[in-house]
Amino acid sequence: MIGKFVYLRYLRDRKILSDRKLEGWGLSESATLSRTAEPEAFYQLLAHLDDWLNGSVFPLTEEQVESFGVERLRHVASVFSGDLSSGQMALEFANYDFSFIPMRRCQ
């Protein structure tokens, strides 16, 4: 799940996965990538991405998303959207711009 969120954050920072794209799929950032994320909406996002990008990075099945649970999904999503994690030192992902990770084109 954490790998998937790194990938999603990369897509968001590179403006590949824009608010406009989410809206076109009938989804919102709050329902998919925030502290109010819902497993069903999150899985819909993953399905749309897999179809749109013709493949998957860090693949997750619907069952895996459901078994992860809503509270854990929301916790991971909130940390990646900039909320602080509690109890331990946190890597504040809001301080990082993933758009600087270079893309390598396959030939």
Describe the structure.
By secondary structure, the chain is mainly α. The chain has one domain (2-100). Helix content is 50%, strand content 0%.
Any descriptors?
about 110 residues, mainly alpha, 6 helices
Number of domains: 1
Q: Class by helix and strand content?
A: mainly alpha
Low-confidence stretches: none
General form: globular
Question: What topology does this entry show?
Answer:
Elements: H1 2-13, H2 19-24, H3 29-32, H4 39-52, H5 62-68, H6 70-80
Compact summary:
This protein is mainly α and 107 residues long.
